[in-house]
């Protein structure tokens, strides 16, 4: 009975005329609508709503009482008027509160829609379940309700709070047992409102008030509070049940955790309540809490047939309990329901497991609502499944935007429009989703690949070992990151980088896989072109180094070659005289052997003259020196060529155990032409262990550093210092110079590709970059220290070869094709030296001719 009705009914003097009119109309029994208009005129204009159905009867009762005993009714109504005036004042003051939502109409009526589920709403449930099972189901519904439930005993001492209230308030049930609900009061609580509440509770009447409650941390929340007294079958008050709706902070997904905060209210949360109330009283209390809950509660039997829905669910869905009895909850399904989600739900229910899913539900009028659904199986004390309890939170019915739906839409839109291909499969690797990028890249639509294995994208040139590896990793739930050749629908091959991750639910169970694929065909082509360009640049660098070396080596070879050529010219100048002398000797020999002595004297005279001609000058006297110098020059040339061969190590394309000191010596010989003049070389070699390396590659590093050092030093006062030592498991090489040095800015960039301080055309800037990569591939380190005006020191650390190891190939993108600037040099054939036997034969022949000549001369 509203405040307005009572106030106007009390003012008897103003309504006497109206009562006369009412009496006349009652006698004529007009239609109900006409009576309502009469009452409107009599008591003031009002708006009729569904929640006010039955107001005609209220007016009739009021009028009849007024007609029978106006004075008595006036006295009764005056008392009600006093309390209702206070209520109206408080309600009116709350309208202007900016933090309190309007309370003019309660979204979910705490009574069932007209004509629906009349009588005991639990009657049908009671026919199928025992009181114990119903109690268990309602306990679960209360525990999982999103509404805040508080139960006190008849003396208003707290005996139960549900997890939702614990979560939002911060108070655990253990903290509140036996205390007054006044624990939620604070300094700004409306005392007039509290007075009305206390008066109503003292009168064992229902309470419906907006209240400002205080949380444990001191924060405040406006709440819509419904309190109802619970009586036993003898009319004795047993407890009060408070069901509260939070007026702020709703509309978020699962704001209230469906489990109690850690460490709070452990054990049976109804144990304390059970100590004070009988099972029947608890059942009555929980029935009331469920009936008045703002959460949507649905209970099915073990076969998933509906046996109960609460008024909140009836109100929002439009389906009455009478319509749904015995039916499946699938009545809420529609064409846009997520079938994959339904599959998960059915699987969980079949396994008698809990369910927590956001669902799109269909109402009776065809409208849809997103709901956060929690379903839990209920077992008896023997472990037999008795029923399922579903407690649902409306995600879009609180006047706020459905955040979950918007998030899902946003995520789906983001995934659909992602640049990379996204593919999702179930646990059996059957495709359940592909995005637009997949369809665009492969040419397949989702309908064409739905339910199929991603192997349909593979083709004849797909790496079988790679796919086998991927299958093994997925079988073991290991993430995959591979590059693979796939084929489009029309047969075009394309390269992808594929990353696959297992999808795990909140129980740690694998539910599927998500694959993100990037088309790297163009990237690989660009990399190949870049590598080719780098190879060409490196070739240029090597050719530049080769040009410098060839120029130096040409000078080194030309010097001994020049005096060998000079010696040959000297010997050639005497060749005709020696040839003439030999010819005369042969003629003399013939005469002697034939016994012909004619002209012998003249012949001997000619021989003497020819002999004098041969002996004239220094050629004959210095013949041995000429030959020795020529052999020395040839040996020098041979040594240069041999060092060049050793430097390039054409016979050592693979890595092997090598001596670093030997490599440095070989490099210094090759760079000998650079070190002439005023450059001093100091070598301080330590006793080094062998190193597993490619000698040709390391020699290239040494030569590059030495060449740079020479170019940085004063040619007349340069000093190159080389130190080698063993430190732990490493071999350390230090190559230092006393050149001009580098500043910090230059030093920081010396290993960058293409960085050079030389003039244009004098260097590519790749020398030290290649050196850095070579050392890195040898699992070593290279660094430099420099000071302007004092010089630079390069330090190289290489791991020592601790054990004898088989020969290995050290791969290097910079040196794979050409191991050194001289890798294309032809093999050198060593020049043979004059053997000892040949020298002995020549001596014997000379001695023989000398004897013949002496004999002839004696006869003459």
Overview of the structural elements:
The chain has 860 residues and is α+β, with helices and mostly antiparallel strands. Helix content is 44%, strand content 19%. The protein has 28 helices and 22 strands. Strand 8 and strand 9 form a beta hairpin. The chain starts with a helix and ends with a helix. The N terminus and C terminus are likely disordered.
Describe the protein's topology.
Layout: H1 3-10, H2 12-28, H3 32-43, H4 55-68, H5 70-95, H6 123-128, H7 131-143, E1 148-153, E2 158-161, H8 163-169, H9 173-176, H10 191-202, E3 207-214, E4 220-231, E5 237-246, H11 271-276, H12 279-291, E6 296-301, E7 306-309, H13 311-317, H14 321-324, H15 339-350, E8 355-362, E9 368-379, E10 385-394, H16 403-416, E11 421-426, E12 431-434, H17 436-442, H18 446-449, H19 464-475, E13 480-487, E14 493-504, E15 510-519, H20 521-573, H21 575-594, H22 600-615, H23 623-648, E16 656-658, H24 660-670, E17 679-684, E18 691-693, H25 695-712, E19 718-727, E20 730-737, H26 744-747, H27 767-777, E21 781-787, E22 791-799, H28 836-859
Parallel strand pairs: 17-19
Antiparallel strand pairs: 1-2, 1-5, 3-4, 4-5, 6-7, 6-10, 8-9, 9-10, 11-12, 11-15, 13-14, 14-15, 16-18, 19-20, 20-22, 21-22
Helix pairs in contact: 1-5, 2-3, 4-5, 7-12, 20-23, 21-22, 23-24, 24-25, 25-27
């Amino acid at each position: 009975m509203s405040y307005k009705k009572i106030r106007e009914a009390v003012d008897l003097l103003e309504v006497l005329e109206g009562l006369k009119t009412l009496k006349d109309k009652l006698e004529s029994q007009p239609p109900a609508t006409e009576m309502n208009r009469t009452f409107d005129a009599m008591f003031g204009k009002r708006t009729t709503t569904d929640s006010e159905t039955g107001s005609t009867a209220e007016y009739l009762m009021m009028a009849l009482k007024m007609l029978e005993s106006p004075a008595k009714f006036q006295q009764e109504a005056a008392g009600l008027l006093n309390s209702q005036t206070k209520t109206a004042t408080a309600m009116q003051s709350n309208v202007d509160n900016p933090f309190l939502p309007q309370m003019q109409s309660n979204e979910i009526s705490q009574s069932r829609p007209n004509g629906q589920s009349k009588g005991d709403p639990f009657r049908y449930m009671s026919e199928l379940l025992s009181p114990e099972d119903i109690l268990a189901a309602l306990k679960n519904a209360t525990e999982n309700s999103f509404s805040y439930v508080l139960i006190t005993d008849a003396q208003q001492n707290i005996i139960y709070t549900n997890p939702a209230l614990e979560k939002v308030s911060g108070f655990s049930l253990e903290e509140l047992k036996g205390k007054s609900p006044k624990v939620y009061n604070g300094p700004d609580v409306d005392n007039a409102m509290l007075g009305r509440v206390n008066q109503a509770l003292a009168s064992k009447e229902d309470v419906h008030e907006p209240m400002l409650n205080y949380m444990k941390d001191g924060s405040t929340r406006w709440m819509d509070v419904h309190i109802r007294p619970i009586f036993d079958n003898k009319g004795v008050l047993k407890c009060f049940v408070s069901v509260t709706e939070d007026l702020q902070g709703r509309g978020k997904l699962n704001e209230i955790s469906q489990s109690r905060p850690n460490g709070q209210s452990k054990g049976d949360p109804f144990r304390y309540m059970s100590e004070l109330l009988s099972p029947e009283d608890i059942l009555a209390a929980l029935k009331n809490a469920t009936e008045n809950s703002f959460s949507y509660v649905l209970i099915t039997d073990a076969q998933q047939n509906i046996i109960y829905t609460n008024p909140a669910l009836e109100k929002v869905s439009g389906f009455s309990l009478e319509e749904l009895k015995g039916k499946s909850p699938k009545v809420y399904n529609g064409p846009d329901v997520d079938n994959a989600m339904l599959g998960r739900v059915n699987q969980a229910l079949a396994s008698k497991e809990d369910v927590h899913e956001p669902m799109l539900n269909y109402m009776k009028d065809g409208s849809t609502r997103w709901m956060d659904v929690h379903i839990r199986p209920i077992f008896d004390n023997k472990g037999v499944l008795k029923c399922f309890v579903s407690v649902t939170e409306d995600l879009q019915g609180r006047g706020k935007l459905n955040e979950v739906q918007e998030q899902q839409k946003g995520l789906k839109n983001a995934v659909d429009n992602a640049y990379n291909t996204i593919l999702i499969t179930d646990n059996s690797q059957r495709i359940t989703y592909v995005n637009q990028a997949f369809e665009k890249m492969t040419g397949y639509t989702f309908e064409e690949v739905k339910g199929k294995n991603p192997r349909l994208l593979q083709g004849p040139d797909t790496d079988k070992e790679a796919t086998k590896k991927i299958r093994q990793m997925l079988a073991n739930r290991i993430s995959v990151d591979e590059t693979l050749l796939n084929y489009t629908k029309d047969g075009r091959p394309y390269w992808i980088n594929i990353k696959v991750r297992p999808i795990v639910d909140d129980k740690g169970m694998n539910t599927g896989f998500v694959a993100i694929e990037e088309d790297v065909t163009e990237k690989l082509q660009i990399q190949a072109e870049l590598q080719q360009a780098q190879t060409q640049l490196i070739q240029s660098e090597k050719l530049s180094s080769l040009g410098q070396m060839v120029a130096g080596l040409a000078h080194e070879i030309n010097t001994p070659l020049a005096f060998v050529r000079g010696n040959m010219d000297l010997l050639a100048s005497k060749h005709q005289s020696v040839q003439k002398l030999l010819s005369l000797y042969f003629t003399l020999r013939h005469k002697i052997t034939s016994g012909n002595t004619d002209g012998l004297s003249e012949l001997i005279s000619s021989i003497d003259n020819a002999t004098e001609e041969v002996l004239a000058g220094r050629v004959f006297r210095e013949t041995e020196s000429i030959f020795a110098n020529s052999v020395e020059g040839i040996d020098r040339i041979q040594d240069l060529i041999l060092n060049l061969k050793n430097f390039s190590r054409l016979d050592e394309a693979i890595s092997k155990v090598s001596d670093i000191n030997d490599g440095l010596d070989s490099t210094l010989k090759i760079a000998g032409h650079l070190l002439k003049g005023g450059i001093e070389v100091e070598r301080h070699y330590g006793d080094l262990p062998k190193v597993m390396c490619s000698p040709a590659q390391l020699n290239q590093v040494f030569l590059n550093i030495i060449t740079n050092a020479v170019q940085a030093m004063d040619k007349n006062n340069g000093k190159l210092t080389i130190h080698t030592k063993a430190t732990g498991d490493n071999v350390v090489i230090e190559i230092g110079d006393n050149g001009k040095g580098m500043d910090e800015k230059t030093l920081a960039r010396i290993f960058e590709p293409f960085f050079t301080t030389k003039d244009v055309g004098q260097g590519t800037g790749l020398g030290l970059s290649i050196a850095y990569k070579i050392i890195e591939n040898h699992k070593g380190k290279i660094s430099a220290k420099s000071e302007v005006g004092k010089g630079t020191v390069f330090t190289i650390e290489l791991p020592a070869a601790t054990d004898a190891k088989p020969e290995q190939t050290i791969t290097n993108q910079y040196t794979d094709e050409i191991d050194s600037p001289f890798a294309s040099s032809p093999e050198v054939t060593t020049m043979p030296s004059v053997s000892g036997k040949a020298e002995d034969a020549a001596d014997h022949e000379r001695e023989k001719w000398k004897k013949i000549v002496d004999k002839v001369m004696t006869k003459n």
